[in-house]
Design a protein that fits this description.
By secondary structure, this protein is mainly alpha-helical. Helix content is 44%, strand content 10%. It contains 5 helices and 4 strands; from the N terminus they run αααααββββ. The strands form 2 sheets. The chain has a two-stranded parallel ribbon with strand order 1-4. A two-stranded antiparallel sheet has the order 2-3. Strand 2 and strand 3 form a beta hairpin.
Length: 154
């Protein structure tokens, strides 16, 4: 398990159900501010709900699909936007299984690590430079981008 992480004490679906009152209480702020409020975000991270589909080898929960489904369903019953952000981050997190383990731990292994990703950009361009790539372009949105540590730029 990655340094500083621990396995969730409560199964993901039960943790999500337990957060329904908090999510309901934040629903108006989510709508108004167009992002997950910091206090709710902290509770979602503490419950490890952004790490449900991250492999255990990277420090994730690696829950089964039914548990994931029930967790997302519980979150969505309180606020669809919150469920969308958690679901999208988990969908992107499945990529960790295909990355070099060190890279996967760097990107997905932190307690609050999430990756936001949106639709492809027709204007995106990556140019090789001395230390990597310089990326430019315009993307319309990436769900969860305001609270994610990394952005996927297609």
């Amino acid at each position: 398990m990655a340094a500083g992480l621990r396995a969730a004490a409560v199964p993901a679906d039960k943790a999500a159900q337990g957060l329904v009152p908090d999510i309901l209480a934040a629903a108006n702020r989510i709508e108004k501010e167009r992002e997950l409020p910091a206090d709710l975000l902290e509770k979602l991270h503490a419950a490890r709900l952004f790490h449900m589909l991250v492999p255990k080898s990277v420090g994730g929960e690696q829950v089964d699909v039914l548990t994931f489904y029930h967790a997302i369903e519980a979150i969505a019953s309180a606020d669809a936007s919150a469920a969308w952000c958690v679901g999208q981050a988990n969908g992107v997190a499945m990529a960790a299984a295909y990355l070099d383990p060190a890279v996967a731990r760097e990107v997905f292994g932190g307690r609050t690590s999430t990756v936001a990703s949106g639709p492809n950009s027709r204007t995106a361009k990556a140019v090789r430079v001395k230390d990597g790539y310089r990326v430019s372009g315009r993307w319309g949105f990436a769900s969860g981008s305001r609270h994610s540590k990394f952005l996927g730029a297609h």
